[in-house]
Write a structure and sequence with these properties.
- This protein is an all-alpha fold and about 400 residues long.
- About 80% of the residues lie in helices and about 0% in strands.
- It has 16 helices and no strands.
- It has helices spanning about 1-20, 25-75, 80-85, 90-110, 110-115, 145-180, 180-195, 200-210, 220-240, 245-270, 270-300, 305-310, 315-325, 330-350, 365-370, 380-405.
- The two termini are about 45 Å apart.
């Protein structure tokens, strides 16, 4: 123990003096602050506290080195213009991209990575970790490591689908409201205000109580998907159609696309998952609408928009060629934020038993199912909770960098 303490403080002092000698002010302040903190922790908490500080510092160092290496890897693969942007990315953004990459690999290749199926019972309840089960078993004897990998696919996939649908509905409504104005703008704004006035969790619980019970059938979910696709299609049609003939042709196309969308949705997801996706899409689409309406409203009043209107350009041209290209940066950043909100809401609903239903693996429900282990000093329930927190923080790191780039601020 004494050798560990001597080597630990000797290493910190050598690194601090080296940073000071080479005029690395930031590194010196960080290293010497860590030395002082470690000294205080060693006096108060003894060797266990100092060991905890050493492990935490080692993990942060490893994360920083991995982030730097991953950023250099992306820079080497990217084009010249993109590589220039990536070189300016902070290590926090590189860390976020690395975590997102790992979660994406886990979700896409879950059957190949996981040693067991997500619902396969392989041991006794709450069996400890061994050579076959890295994290032990859950309350039914299923492999926790396999369920965490499958949970990355299920939880993130539902959150991503819900975010995409919310973004398409809210962004299209906001762009159309900015270009049309008048009664349509006022009506859409009041609808968004009504939905946003209800707390997200309460609204989700209400909608899931209505549609998540006996109504959660394939027929109901397919009709809900069809109705959602028709609403989105009518928004696109209102922006693109300019005559009766185009309205009739567009209505036929919308009906066909909506039918195909409903068929594909019911094939990929079950009824409860479809209802969950649509609920979160409706809850968060008003937020996207408000931002899109504000950003597009600032673009609509520009002189080049007035010039395009004088040339006789229609709303679809204005949205597609003028407004949307000049609104991309804040909308992309908003997509990341919305994903975090949707992801946390789905995890929270699953923790309450109203989200993704068993035996499907889900990080939120895994925390609830294994919560009794905390009273026995086991950290197993904290692993899926840490996965939720880690992915949320990672996405926020990337979003912060994108917001910084879109704002035009310099380092």
């Amino acid at each position: 123990m004494m050798i560990f303490v001597i080597l630990y403080f000797a290493l910190l002092l050598v690194l601090s003096c080296g940073a000071a000698y080479y005029n690395q002010r930031s590194a010196f302040l960080l290293l010497f602050s860590l030395t002082l903190v470690s000294l205080v922790v060693a006096i108060i908490g003894g060797i266990p506290g100092l060991r905890f500080i050493a492990i935490a510092a080692g993990m942060l160092l490893a994360a920083g080195m991995m982030s730097y290496a991953f950023r250099e890897f992306l820079t080497a693969l990217a084009s010249d213009e993109m590589a220039k942007e990536l070189r300016t990315a902070p290590l926090t953004a590189a860390f976020g991209m690395f975590v997102i990459f790992i979660v994406a690999v886990m979700g896409i290749f879950a059957p190949a990575i996981a040693p067991y199926g997500e619902a396969e019972i392989v041991s006794q309840a709450f069996a400890p970790p061994d050579n076959n089960m890295l994290l032990g078993a859950d309350q039914l004897g299923r492999d926790m490591f396999s369920r965490i990998i499958y949970g990355a696919r299920n939880t993130v996939a539902l959150a991503l689908c819900g975010t995409v649908l919310a973004f398409i509905l809210g962004a299209m409504a906001g762009l159309l409201a900015a270009t049309k104005g008048g009664y349509f703008d006022g009506f859409m704004g009041r609808m968004a205000d009504v939905i946003m006035s209800i707390p997200s969790l309460i609204f989700a619980l209400l909608m899931l109580s209505i549609f998540g019970g006996s109504l959660a059938s394939p027929q109901t979910s397919s009709w809900l998907l069809f109705g959602f696709a028709v609403v989105v299609g009518l928004l696109f049609l209102a922006a693109a159609a300019y005559s009766l003939v185009s309205w009739l042709i567009g209505a036929a196309i919308v009906a066909g696309v909506a039918f195909a969308f409903a068929l594909a949705g019911t094939t990929i997801f079950n009824a409860s998952e479809i209802i969950l996706i649509l609920v979160v899409a409706i809850i968060y689409s008003p937020r996207v609408f408000r931002l899109t309406r504000a950003v597009a409203g600032n673009v609509v009043v520009m002189d080049y928009i007035e010039a395009a209107k004088l040339r006789g350009e229609k709303n679809w041209y204005l949205i597609r060629r003028e407004i949307l290209p000049n609104s991309t940066a804040p909308l992309v950043a908003e997509f990341g934020l919305e994903f975090c909100f949707v992801f946390l809401l789905i995890a929270g609903l699953s923790f309450l038993g109203l989200g993704i239903q068993p035996p499907t693996a889900d990080w939120g429900s895994m925390v609830r199912e294994n919560a009794t282990l905390i009273s026995f000093g086991e950290i197993t329930p904290l692993i899926p909770a840490a996965a939720i927190a880690l992915l949320t923080v990672a996405v926020n790191f990337v979003v912060d960098w994108m917001l910084h780039r879109s704002s035009g601020l310099k380092e």
